[in-house]
TrEMBL record:
Domain (Gfo/Idh/MocA-like oxidoreductase N-terminal): residue spans on this chain: 7-118
Protein's UniProt name: Gfo/Idh/MocA family oxidoreductase
Domain GFO/IDH/MocA-like oxidoreductase: 134-258
Source organism superkingdom: Bacteria
Family matches, as Pfam families: GFO_IDH_MocA, GFO_IDH_MocA_C3
Signal peptide feature range: none
GO molecular function: nucleotide binding
Length: 388
């Protein structure tokens, strides 16, 4: 450690890696410094030189150099588990960009390997968990003040991507190179937040469209219906072809409801009693007032609306700061690496359900069937090696 600061090795100096480097160099992560930078493109050395840190084209050489205490992987998705395992195996605290893996088998492998290295910190870069809005909602759901979950829906279609976006590289929007479409690339944060706040679903039935309005082979539209404990249900809708876009999350519980619009405005309705109690105790005069629009809603509920601001870069900086605090002071992790499998498994289950036309168990997810179906699609592409 350098002056009680973690020396971070950044693997991949693209958009994400470059952003993290700027945040650290700009003092937004006070307990961390850039230890070294690695990228397969030699021309990225110029950027490393600007930061005054060593540059490597081989991440294994960087790990062995003694210049870094921890690594973050900002590389194509399939590489996260491989690099994560290597880093942990060689004494590195390891922070993986989302998703932890493209499929549950590789996600589970890196998570299980991390469990054999209890002295090393292992996390996943779910920066949305630091968003004050979602932190507050998580606290409300955990407190139980709204009672048990009944239904939740998230329409998140603010991912509009034009065709040139997909044409910019050979691996983009492929099964063998990226491992999927909107579920793997754009929506992992929402899949994580949804389960973080509402609980991990038990099963899913999904309809996905592949190359629906884009010239790609992976999913560009998804409609999924999930089942939770105690009969609660949920719907998740996302796509990359909705130019106006919608971002609306609803969480209905026994004693109230949460509505989030555009990830910055929250309306919380709290019922005076459990909804079933209100239903059972309502007399016919109140029912008549309800049907004629004369019932005073304030007798049944209160409503609170909160608007949240946004500080660009703060969420990513907070994840890095927390990761360094874990290493230096054994702080509580914002997003343990083990949590990373939940979003991967739900995305895999949505794919598998849409491929088979069947409801798919998440409690007992069939990894082998998923891998067979995935490899069929990789083979059809004819550009990438099949996965194991």
């Amino acid at each position: 450690m350098a002056e009680d600061k973690v020396r971070l090795g950044i693997i991949g100096l693209g958009a994400e890696g470059g952003m993290y480097a700027k945040f650290i160099d700009g003092g937004m992560v006070p307990n961390m410094v850039i230890g070294a930078i690695c990228d397969i493109l030699p021309e990225k050395k110029e950027a490393a030189d600007e930061y005054g840190v060593p540059f490597y084209t081989d991440y294994k050489e960087m790990i062995a150099s003694g210049n870094v205490d921890a690594i973050v992987t900002t590389v194509p998705h399939y590489l996260h588990p491989e690099m994560g395992i290597y880093g942990l195996e060689h004494g590195m605290h390891t922070l993986l960009e989302k998703p932890v893996g493209v499929y549950t088998k590789q996600a589970r492998e890196v998570i299980e390997f991390a469990e054999t290295k209890p002295d090393l910190k292992f996390g996943v870069f779910f920066n949305q968990r630091t968003n004050p809005l979602y932190k507050d909602l998580k606290a409300i759901m955990d407190s139980g003040e709204l009672g048990k979950l009944r239904h939740t829906s998230w329409i998140i279609t603010t991912w509009w991507r034009p065709q040139p976006y997909y044409a910019q590289s050979d691996w983009r929007a492929t099964w063998g190179g990226e491992g999927g479409g909107v579920l793997v690339n754009q929506a992992p944060h929402q899949l994580d937040l949804w389960q973080w706040m509402c609980g991990v679903p038990k099963s899913v039935f999904a309809k996905a469209q592949y190359g629906f309005r884009r010239d790609i082979v992976v999913e560009d539209e998804v409609n999924a219906l999930v089942s939770f404990e105690d009969g609660a249900t949920g719907t998740f809708i996302t796509c990359t072809h909705d130019l106006p876009g919608t971002d609306r999350l609803e969480i209905l519980c026994d004693k109230g409801k949460i509505v989030v619009e555009n990830s910055n405005k929250v309306t919380i309705t709290r019922l005076k009693e459990d909804e079933q109690v209100l239903s059972q105790n309502m007399d016919m005069s109140a029912v008549a007032a309800l049907f004629t629009g004369k019932l005073d809603r304030a007798e049944l509920m209160t409503e609170e609306t909160i608007e949240y601001g946004s500080v660009w870069g703060q969420q990513h900086s907070d994840v890095l700061k927390n990761f360094a605090d874990q290493i230096l002071h054994d702080a509580e992790p914002l997003a343990p690496g083990s949590d990373g499998i939940h979003g991967v498994r739900l995305a895999n289950a949505i794919h598998l359900s849409s491929w088979t036309g069947q409801e798919v168990s998440i409690d007992d997810f069939d990894e082998e069937t998923y891998m067979r179906e995935l490899n069929k699609r990789i083979a059809d592409e004819g550009k990438f090696e099949q996965r194991s």
